[in-house]
Design a protein that fits this description.
The protein has about 450 residues and is α/β, with parallel strands linked by helices. The chain has helices at about 5-20, 25-40, 45-60, 60-65, 70-85, 115-125, 145-155, 170-180, 200-210, 225-240, 255-265, 285-295, 300-310, 315-325, 330-340, 345-350, 355-365, 370-380, 385-390, 395-405, 410-430, 440, 445-450, and strands at about 100-105, 130-135, 160, 185-190, 215-220, 245-250, 270-275, 280-285. α11 links the parallel β6 and β7.
Length: about 450
């Protein structure tokens, strides 16, 4: 997310940081670049105008021009304003009501409401320790109710049984009654969407709102729709008591315009991001961390949190014990590769790192891409147990057999053995010193090793 915007901002700030001091002309040039970058990112024109109007007077202040590091000061001003536009701080979901707490999800058809309903349910069960029931109110889209039922079944989330022909208002009353009987603390209502906003849809949502009196009414919006998402937010805000936003498909949005526009337009916080198709691909929205990522400063805190959630902690402890003894085998290396895949591969980790565009450029020049993880995994799986434990025994004939078994060539085998040797040496050094490094934090060193 924000890849295009990050690249543009890094170029603009790189130029500003080179200047020993900044005059009004240089500031104007920088702001012109920022304005263009935001518009290209599909940020709403009104939002861009407001953003620039806030940044300019601060950037032209005497304390900036006289600063020993004026470029850095401008970056700080832009950072602060981005955080302000995104919401200052992350907002927790409101569960402050008598159980079962009703939460209504609204949005256009195709925005990902049904999938998001199951993701939010799983999040609340895991992080808030709440028993959740899901109820589909979409009686129009073919198999919509069945889709939610299957998601509930696959992920062990309670779902209101389907009664054919029942109207949304009656489903609401039945869901609240069933949740009470089953001891559910939260009920998520997945409402029907349309391909566009219409009078009938809005009337139905208002009726549902009156019946269930939701503690939260959450707009689920597709981040890929950019300014359209901001306009949709405005329409829903004018119709119902909208309280928050969840942006879906954030992992596929290289522009990020929707995130920067929606909070300002709808005047409600963005609380979560959908970052993939799997139920666990769901993140809390932290404005300050997102601002860091937009400006190319990385987000190591989120990376470490992601590592602690995604990775097998018992496996990490075993690896750490081996490293303390100076032991590291191809089996351990294979485990590192698989952990890296679990965290989203090279690109998944890269998106959290500072100077991401520069690192990506180095990777492109070195010919490193996601395929290298799968390729190395295939090579290791083609080795015998003895070869994985002691790669030093791998001679010419063994390399040929491994290459044939993995569908690669001897050059690929040699490259992997070289990488393994480098990593082994690095791990031995770590075992003698501070073990609070990459492996301890759950960050697979494979990526960093390849960039040496």
């Amino acid at each position: 997310m924000f890849e295009n915007l990050t690249n543009k901002f890094e170029e603009i700030f790189s130029s500003l940081k080179k200047a020993p001091s900044l005059d009004e002309k240089q500031v104007d040039e920088g702001l012109k670049g920022i304005r263009l970058a935001l518009l290209e990112a599909d940020v709403s024109l009104d939002v861009v105008k407001e953003f620039i109007s806030r940044v300019k007077p601060k950037a032209l202040g005497q304390e900036i021009i006289r600063s020993t590091s004026p470029g850095d000061m401008v970056v700080k001003i832009v950072y602060d304003e981005i955080v302000s536009f995104l919401g200052d701080k992350n907002s927790e979901i409101s569960l402050n009501a008598v159980p079962p707490v009703p939460i209504m999800l609204v949005g256009l058809q195709g925005s990902g409401k049904t999938t998001t309903t199951s993701k939010l349910a799983k999040f609340l069960e895991k992080n808030n320790k709440k028993k959740v029931m899901m109820a589909s109110l979409d009686v129009y889209r073919p198999a919509a109710q069945e889709q939610l039922r299957l998601l509930g079944e696959q992920n062990n989330i309670e779902t209101l049984p389907i009664i054919e022909g029942q109207l949304p208002a009656d489903i609401c009353r039945r869901a609240l009654s069933a949740a009470n009987l089953n001891g559910c603390e939260v009920v998520l209502f997945d409402t029907a969407g349309r391909t566009q906003i219409d009078f009938q849809m809005m009337n139905e949502i208002k009726q549902i709102e009156t019946i269930i009196n939701p503690a939260e009414t959450i707009l689920v919006a597709d981040s890929l729709t950019g300014q359209v998402a901001a306009n949709v937010a405005k329409e829903f805000k004018n119709t119902v008591n909208l309280s928050s936003i969840i942006l879906t498909r954030a992992d596929g949005d290289g522009r990020g315009g929707a995130a920067l526009s929606m909070k300002y337009v709808a005047e409600v916080p963005i609380k979560f991001l959908g970052v993939g198709e799997k139920i666990e691909n769901f993140e809390v929205f932290h404005p300050d961390r997102i601002a860091n990522r937009i400006l190319g400063m990385g987000d190591i805190v989120s990376l470490v949190e992601k590592a602690s959630e995604d990775l097998d902690q018992e496996n990490l402890k075993k690896t750490e014990e081996k490293l303390k003894k100076g032991q590291f085998s191809m089996e351990d290396y294979l485990s590192q590769l698989r952990q890296m895949k679990k965290m989203g591969g090279i690109e998944g980790i890269m998106s959290f790192l500072p100077g991401v565009s520069k690192i990506k450029s180095q990777m492109d020049q070195s010919g490193i891409d996601e395929k290298i993880i799968t390729q190395n995994e295939a090579v290791i799986l083609s080795m015998t147990k003895q070869e994985r434990e002691n790669p030093k025994i791998i001679n010419g004939s063994r390399k040929k057999r491994i290459a044939n078994g993995s569908g690669t060539d001897i050059a690929t085998i040699n490259k992997l053995l070289k990488q393994f040797k480098m990593m082994s040496e690095m791990m031995k050094k770590m075992s003698k010193g501070n073990m609070k490094g990459m492996a301890d934090k759950g960050i697979p060193p494979e990526l960093f090793n390849q960039l040496k």
